[in-house]
Amino acid sequence: MFLETVRSEGLAHLSYIFGDNGKAAVVDPRRDCDIYLDIASRHDACITHIFETHRNEDYLIGSKELADKTCAQIYHSKHLDFHYGNAVSEGNTFELEDIHLKIIETPGHTYESISISLTDKKFGKEPVAVFTGDALFIGDVGRTDFYPDRAEEVAGLLYDSIFQKLLPLGDQVILHPAHGAGSVCGSGMASREFSTLGYERMCNPALRKTRDEFITYKVNEHHYKPPYFSTMHTLNLEGPPLLKNLPKPLPLSVDDFEKAMKEGMVVLDVRSPEAFAGASIPGSIAIPLEMVSSFAGWFLPYDKPIGLVVDQYEQVEAAVRYLIRVGYDTISGYLEKGLRKWEVSGRKYETLPTIYAGEVKRRIQAKEDFTLLDVRSKEEFEKGHLPNAINIYVGELPHNLDKLPKDNRPMTVFCSTGRRSTIAASLLKKSGFERIEDWLGSMSACSAIGCPTGE
Amino acid sequence: MFLETVRSEGLAHLSYIFGDNGKAAVVDPRRDCDIYLDIASRHDACITHIFETHRNEDYLIGSKELADKTCAQIYHSKHLDFHYGNAVSEGNTFELEDIHLKIIETPGHTYESISISLTDKKFGKEPVAVFTGDALFIGDVGRTDFYPDRAEEVAGLLYDSIFQKLLPLGDQVILHPAHGAGSVCGSGMASREFSTLGYERMCNPALRKTRDEFITYKVNEHHYKPPYFSTMHTLNLEGPPLLKNLPKPLPLSVDDFEKAMKEGMVVLDVRSPEAFAGASIPGSIAIPLEMVSSFAGWFLPYDKPIGLVVDQYEQVEAAVRYLIRVGYDTISGYLEKGLRKWEVSGRKYETLPTIYAGEVKRRIQAKEDFTLLDVRSKEEFEKGHLPNAINIYVGELPHNLDKLPKDNRPMTVFCSTGRRSTIAASLLKKSGFERIEDWLGSMSACSAIGCPTGE
Amino acid sequence: MFLETVRSEGLAHLSYIFGDNGKAAVVDPRRDCDIYLDIASRHDACITHIFETHRNEDYLIGSKELADKTCAQIYHSKHLDFHYGNAVSEGNTFELEDIHLKIIETPGHTYESISISLTDKKFGKEPVAVFTGDALFIGDVGRTDFYPDRAEEVAGLLYDSIFQKLLPLGDQVILHPAHGAGSVCGSGMASREFSTLGYERMCNPALRKTRDEFITYKVNEHHYKPPYFSTMHTLNLEGPPLLKNLPKPLPLSVDDFEKAMKEGMVVLDVRSPEAFAGASIPGSIAIPLEMVSSFAGWFLPYDKPIGLVVDQYEQVEAAVRYLIRVGYDTISGYLEKGLRKWEVSGRKYETLPTIYAGEVKRRIQAKEDFTLLDVRSKEEFEKGHLPNAINIYVGELPHNLDKLPKDNRPMTVFCSTGRRSTIAASLLKKSGFERIEDWLGSMSACSAIGCPTGE
Amino acid sequence: MFLETVRSEGLAHLSYIFGDNGKAAVVDPRRDCDIYLDIASRHDACITHIFETHRNEDYLIGSKELADKTCAQIYHSKHLDFHYGNAVSEGNTFELEDIHLKIIETPGHTYESISISLTDKKFGKEPVAVFTGDALFIGDVGRTDFYPDRAEEVAGLLYDSIFQKLLPLGDQVILHPAHGAGSVCGSGMASREFSTLGYERMCNPALRKTRDEFITYKVNEHHYKPPYFSTMHTLNLEGPPLLKNLPKPLPLSVDDFEKAMKEGMVVLDVRSPEAFAGASIPGSIAIPLEMVSSFAGWFLPYDKPIGLVVDQYEQVEAAVRYLIRVGYDTISGYLEKGLRKWEVSGRKYETLPTIYAGEVKRRIQAKEDFTLLDVRSKEEFEKGHLPNAINIYVGELPHNLDKLPKDNRPMTVFCSTGRRSTIAASLLKKSGFERIEDWLGSMSACSAIGCPTGE
Q1: Does CATH place domain B354-449 in 3.40.50.300?
Q2: What's the complex ipTM?
Q3: Potential cystine with D92: which of B58, C180, D88, D204 (Cβ 3.0-4.6 Å)?
Q4: Is D444 on the interface with A (CB under 8 A)?
């Protein structure tokens, strides 16, 4: 019996493939699903079952794509009208040689969420593992803000799913959730990716509350809802379009790249914040590579082609995976390695001044006149921030530009470490703000050297 | 916080590397230790601690090798006089950023065996994982036959280690033992490589016994002790010789290979049983590639060079790893791909007739006169065997050739599936037996088609 | 400016990709064309031109497949009615930055064969390389037997193409033909894959003849024409079906594999001759992996699914490439690793006795009664053979079974080294011959030990 | 017979491995010699011969390293007192199965330079390839400035070596020199890496001269002689120290990195020019990764440890190779991925303003007051430069800082494309210059948009 976890960086998405003696099942596959076929081949197994724990808002499910490449059946909850696959409900069971699987309905995050328990028939009837989707995470629980008019009801449902359905499986059960730390689906997750129901029962802060406390806590929790969530939701219900192959963007010459820009191509620069600061194409949007899946959906239109700026070819392949996972399938091409050819062509490029913590501290202490723009989430901001800092979450920046001062003072953009600030800085430059500074290091550097923080 | 399991096939050995925020620790590293450096690099971490749960008999520990390539310290029990590293004892603790480790003395398998519990300080004081070495496996417990004159004492020690030290850590604790299914260190292990203390408490057959039942069970258990165990033991106490690099055997021409054979080189054929049966070099020992670590130590001398016969170059690299893990460092070279050049040189090669279950059954039913040699373990044999079959365990065959009939009847060699039988067949041919047949499929095929089995 | 050779083992096919400053061209791409995209990416180049030197008989051209994945144009001769791409003729030129290409019509192998000369504009007007397709090889020239009723005419055309078109380009020109040693398109090719027009002029035996001698030599040359040649020819004219992706065969359980066999699946065993000899599925056809592209077309039907027998998964991927290159796109699946599961299922498997040169020699000298079947080509046979050996070329064996003795004597099958003999042995066993022996080593071993050869 | 070219990027060094039927030879191996073993294994060949065409100044020869891992013999010219290997002279021959090699003394670049011709015995006595070391390149000839007091003599020797020894081998001979475009051993080399003696005879500009013209041309040629050349020379005569393994630098925490800097560690930043411009550690030296082998020897001391700054781990491995090839074996470690952890630690980092061609042009036209520092070679400068630009070659910058203006005007540093300018800018910042600007695009961008150039 084997079980492997497939991490999809960027989404902090966890999917699972397990099997026994030539048969295998996958839980919540991602759309670039070649990896499951590779793992199955390594174990000489045929993928026969695909389970979806719930509709998903933050990425496109890969089950149709994977089913197309195997002869597997897709299973999801009967409580939502998926236009493909097979409906299952509480208590349904599946057998893969010595593996016994059982469906457990665990609504709360969404109404149709299911969990799946795994029992090793060779060793008895106790389950040894459970796949919980977005119901129970390691160190946190799923968000419950998708039905705003029924917030208390769904928070209560989640509590009951955890306390009446999951925890009773036993302390010994290993927990396999659909997300790890860094996901937009919960902010308190542990960086540790291994846990058990017993450990969560004892140590997960969200589970140390009474039902009422839990509901109050969940109802007051704040999550951002990026615009692409509804696209994901819709496509996941219908079944995302089949890719068959990953798109393979071609290298574009500087001339062709510029021509495509003029015809509407959006430029996505996935290089490091430092490289973007050093030189970038005017009008490009910076999203450092590993953040593409989480942030593209806030800023990139679905109806325009995308042109990539990278340091090296490997980044193209990664960017393509990160983009198609959230439904961006029309990637026109990439500008040849880095910006070099653009630079030698004599074209204009821009630089983004960077600033370090000591200089920000000095300015604050010297009461110099400049704008501090904090693009962290409301939640992070409220835990501690710089005096006089303006807070607009990076994702909501495009719709809130009018809240920024229009004067000629420098505007220092920052977040927690200096990556979301780079995204924000690129958006501001694209919108015509001229005196933008990117604070690499941001609030973390601030804490390290003892900047003043206020309420 | 990351944690990765490194499986060493052939030994069914499991080692672990885990870390947090730039620091990492390794438990029971293998000797070809490049993989830990690679994983650490991937996590941007420096290996600072190496733990050995116990002296080992079945392979060479890689801690000295790994320490040589990092600046890590080695830690093992104070209850044995290791000639390197640092001694630890019950209750010692180590901190790697948010990871808290604690030494738990768990004697039984050996006197100096330790376990190490892992706590995530961010989430409280409960341990979330434990590394148990050869004390507690998934589905089984460690063997206790290394001190034959104190058999009951050590079995009792192991019981107490498990029930008084390990299980009290809590049902929620994830279990990380040093071996998985297929190891010579225990025969009842699950093929499943994930479990918890709670699950073992409930489902591990060895833990469903009283202390007295447990001791009786362990004392009556039978394990083979290959001759290389004492070599491993001695070298592990002293610290195995540093390899620095994996040996890189060179291709040998047919002439050079034959010349080396005449000068004493032992020929190890790691091809598949089918290929060995089809054609082989006279006098060669067959050990199918993935069985090399487990069986080389029974048959290969430590003071002679080894020459490999492979199908393709990748098998050379694997064979080298499997051999150096059990201390065979002098690998002269390999005969160029497969046997082809040997064949076209006009040299004699041998074939090994194979036989399938239906034919064996027919012969038995027809009461034909032939010898059935069962090379499975005594334990397997006793669970059910063919009428009139002789049982000599493959490992003990070289010293028991006089127990075999010297007549001219065919001798059908078999085991459970047809791999150990191929090893045995090669040994018998090398020893001059001429009418050897290899029964591919062996007892498994027998069961499938309904051969007669008796006592 | 870069130029890389892509070797397709099995076909001994050579294709080329070259380019300069962001643009690239490919000559005679194979059907699994991902490798050209990878090389182009590595050189940051876009493939803009694809050239076909001629229709091909021995494999499916990959130009349509490659064009589908780039925006390249396909070019081939105007003298044949290809149903896709663009027609070119003598003197047409193409520019890729500093590269200047010129079309040279070089009929003979086929009427529409073209060559392409390459000039580096930075260094003057002399060509530095030429792509000759199947007109001029290293150490040989293309076969001219495709228009049997105009044999002399086409041989003369080839002579003139070489002497009046190619050699006049200059001794300094590096030669890039479409095949290397081992191809079915010529038997005298050098194992060396680098040469120049000057070197060929001086050292190629076929070019040391007068025009008349050349024609006589070519007209009397003998080549086999496998049945699949006409399929290749037809599909190449129309444009082979688009694959988009390589087929990814799934692992089949023993039960499913046997069921598919009963429904008509052909079993192709690509393991080594030794492994096939040791144990094989009754009725399977053995073609050692690297020979699949050359020999599948003789024996496998195009209208039945194919099931693979392999030693390890990597062989599946290779076998798929080798099969689709000659148009076998319906590969059902593969039996899990090797024969092991078949063996343990208790099913019948067969062995193929092997024999070495010394034993054959002994039998001949002892005048024992047995049949010697030589499956080498007529040409090889005529250069020297064993007394009383029957010669039927392996490819023609299925249609000549009636020429074999039907008695009960052993039949020793051999070729030059023991690979084609394994193919032949599998075919004979499949056809019901029972006393087949495979002579691994064959005539090469024979020469090595001094067997008697006669006329 | 196989022949593969091994390119060592950065050095533009070409080495060769070729062989036949199980034996192989290597010409001018690099120090990280694992690649030759891999290629030999792929061809099932044993490396038996290693040839050095000459002592080398620009890198450490890997022959001792490679001999240590095989049983090969090393061969070099008898005209220099190498402290290892075997001396050969004009006319010595070597046989590797069908390959015949012949030593040709070709002095000029150095006195002891040899070439080696290769003949395929199966096809006659004409050579088909020649390895020319630094005597004859593709599009250029070797430099002859290593014996400045005998400049005319050695230039004449080189002419005679080419015209009396090499070209007479015949137009048909394929040329395999020791360097390609980008090497410090010659500036006129073609980017094309394939040529023949015939093509060079016709198209190499250096060979279109009379002997006198050639000598005058060579004597007046200007080459830089980096300080590390003498180190290479000395070590190559003695035999470079054995590495056994590539150094494997460990990740250093920000604290450890800074501590090591204080103790004398030199910081080498191999990231892209853009990333270095965006943020860098104060005092670090920037050498973009692929330029490390060529430029490290100008700036890095041999007696201090080196600390690396990289974007990702792969760059560490590449940087190590590039450094050990020129004798830097003490690499302490690398700062974890990019600068991120440095930034969040609150430590000071620096930015390097970048400037694009349009702005430079505007300033020149507006007659603004700023310094233009051109760090290209004297040769490049003389072919065309900006008005009032100061020219100091990047390599010679450290010893010529006193030639730069000490005023407070901005200093715009440039070269041909913006890479050497980044190296120079980092050196200037390290030396205390404060208003440095890096002109990415440099003179190439200048030409593209039509900047004024004057004498």
Answers
A1: no
A2: 0.94
A3: D88
A4: yes
